[in-house]
Structure formats: structure tokens, C-alpha cells
Write a structure and sequence with these properties.
Blueprint lengths: L3 H13 L21 E5 L2 E4 L4 E4 L14 H12 L9 H13 L5 E5 L2 H16 L3 E5 L16 H5 L10 H4 L2 E4 L4 H10 L4 E6 L15 H11 L3 E5 L11 H6 L5 E5 L9 E5 L1 H4 L18 H15 L4 H22 L5 E5 L2 E5 L8 H4 L4 H13 L2 E2 L8 E2 L6 H17 L1
Helix pairs in contact: 2-11, 3-11, 12-15
The protein binds ligand KE4.
Length: 428
Amino acid sequence: MKHDISSTLFAEAQKLIPGGVNSPVRAFRAVGGEPFFVQRAKGSRLWDVDGNEFIDYVGSWGPLILGHAAAAVVKAVTAAARDGMSFGIPNPHEVRLAGLVCEAFPSMQKVRFVSSGTEAVMSALRLARGFTGRDMILKFEGCYHGHADSMLVKAGSGALTFGQPDSAGVPADLAKLTLTVPFNDRVAVETMIALHRNEIAAVIVEPIPANAGMYFPKPGFLEFLRKTTAAHGIVLIFDEVITGFRVAKGGVQELCGVRPDLTCLGKIIGGGLPVGAFGGQAQIMDQLAPLGPVYQAGTLSGNPLAMAAGVATLETIFSKPEFYKALNQLTTELCEGMASVAEAAGIEISQSQIGSVFCNFFFDGPVTDYASAKRSDTARYGRFFHAMMERGVYLAPSQFEVGFVSAAHTPGDIGETIRAAEQAFKSL
Ligand code: KE4
């Protein structure tokens, strides 16, 4: 595969940008080799600067549920841009997007927009601390909630990919305020809450962890978290940055019926532009400045172009009653096909899928938590990743990320991917 121009660009990038990338996982360190540079993308496809074409299952890590350069989104952003790029004063688009988000998430009586998932989580944690007057946060090993200091403790995603569950630069005194327990472990949660009675401000969880690959809550676990946090005056935060508008219009909380106190969103609600959001009960949200004592702000929060992209994305989804059924069915066909060809090639994988999110662990047992996910054969995953790239399919450049199917993917894409996987598995 021709890679000259990407390689030249990467050499130049490394002189100017640490690691040559603006986010670590993009450096391909987990799978080896060098990243390609994208020239353009449309629908389910990416073209790199050397002219190679790929079926894309990363989709910018989740935002592009409609596919790349979706017509409705491009039209909305272009029109918004003609009216000005940013105002730093309220604009109609942010009110419209707030309405769509709160319609889809009944637990969100109010919402505030920010510019990334990290910023949404950071703000939600400060809000929970301000609302409760408590300092500690309880999270789950392997869950990733962005790179705010408090969250880089036994984190997933890039932090896990680099085998550095704890990041340098996070003050020990701050890290002490973040408690971590194994996901799905009720006893550990109850023990930690008993040990730190009246000290824990919030429990934050990815209701379906998707940053150490993907695994699922045991039946009743989320309901247990809801009941236990409510009993102890602890704010329950669902980090639905990945799952919001992805696994269902109303995220995991729509599927399981558990209502958190606060929810963090990102990715899809920005349609590919920088957006995050956090929201929940009005009595908590109204603690935020300018109403209350919890300060939170942002120059580009509610940016009209990002809001317009989010509105166009959500309105497109809302306009199609069968949107998720069709998308999820196509993803199931992909997963079943990949599992079948892996088995035929004698390759053991442990596959997880919900909606249009999937993960193929190179591991011969069930993956039910962070510990089992970490036992995956990451070297074999790396070889599979490159074998698929050679055959025109771009998967996540890390075993500890997930894949996404978009509404732009076609049955033809799925068939082509399964045929590529058949050859790739045989080559391992
Ligand atoms: P951002 O700050 O990257 O917009 O969102 C942080 C975040 C928060 N919560 C969850 C559940 C997330 O998955 C993320 C970010 N996801 C990663 C991919 N697993 C972003 C990709 C990257 O770091 O480059």
C-alpha cells in the first residue's frame, strides 16, 4: 500500500506536534506502524493522502452516526457559517439542540453545552461536588471519562492502550480523591461507600463500558448503583458520551430504565464538530453560575456551527422511526459474518455488540470486565488491524477501542468487510 505522502507528513508533524498527533491513540502505537493522513471522507469511506480508500469503522471515534460529510449536516454547518462563526452570546441553535437533547433524555431537565466530553465530565464532577459539599469520586477500573485530572486514575481508552492506567502530572493529593473499584462488583461498591460514608460526591460510570473494548453490566448492576447512590445522597453520573444517541435515542438509560442524576454527552450531539454536554435534575443544574455557586464557562460553548451540526444530526435521526432498527441490523450482520469467518479460520475471538457498536477481543474466553479485557492478545489484534488495512478496511487502532457502523454503511460494505476479514483471519 502506497504510504509515501502520509509518511512525509507524519515526519513533519512529529517535529511540531508531540508524537505527530493531537490525540495519542491516533499514533498507531498500539498496533504498530504509522498513521495515515486523511485527505477526505464521504459516507462510510475515507481516502488518505496517498489515494488509498478504506471502509471506516472508527467514524471519528463515534460522532459520525450518519457517516462522513452527511448532506444535512454539511448544509446546516455551511448555512450557519455564512451567518457568523461564533458570537459568545446566545444563539437560536443552542436552544434548539437543548430541546432535542432533553426530549431524548427525560432525566435531563436542563443541559449545558461545552466543547468536549472531557469538559462535560469535568464540569459534571465539579457540579456534583458543589451540590453535595463532598470531595470524593467513585469510578470503575477501565472506564474512561476523558482526561480531566480526577479521571486519569485506572482509566481506559488511550491511557489503557499505553499501559499507563495512571497519568503523570496528576497530583497524588488529587488522585486520592478518586476511588476506583472493579465494574460489576457490588460488594466493592458497598465497601467503598461504607468506608467513605458522607465523603463521596458522585459515582461516575460508563453504563456500558466501551473504552477497554466493550463489555456489559451484569443484570441489575445499574439499578443497584441507582438505589445505592440515592440511599447515600451520592450523585449518580452516567457518562453516555459514546452511548448517547448511539445505542438508542435516549442512550443506555432508555434501554435499562435507570435515571441518573446527571448525564454526560458528546460525539454524536456535535455531528463531528467539537461539542460536549452535561445535564440532569434542575435542582442540581441550577447550582451552576450564573444561578448558583458552581462556576463553569467556555468561550465556544454553544458555538453556532457545532450546535447546527448537532441539530441537523439529531433531526435526521428523529425523522426516521426505523433509524436504529436498520442500523443495528446491519451491525449484527457484520458481527455474525466476522465471527463466522474467524471460526472458520480457527481464530478465537470474544465478540461484543450493542446497537451499532462492536468489539472483537482476541481472547478465547468471555470478556466481562476490565481484567478479562486486558488478557486479550493485543499483538494478534495489531496484526489483524494491519491485515484489514491492507484490504481496505479501517478498524480502531487499538484492541481497547470499539468499532462503529454508520447509517451510511451499506450491505455491500458489510460484505466487503467480511470477505476482507476472512482473508485477514487466515493470514494471522
Ligand atoms: P472527548 O474529550 O475526547 O470529547 O471525550 C472524552 C470521553 C468521555 N467519556 C467517554 C465514555 C469517552 O469515550 C470519551 C472519549 N472517547 C475516546 C475514544 N474511546 C476519544 C478518542 C481519543 O481519545 O482520541
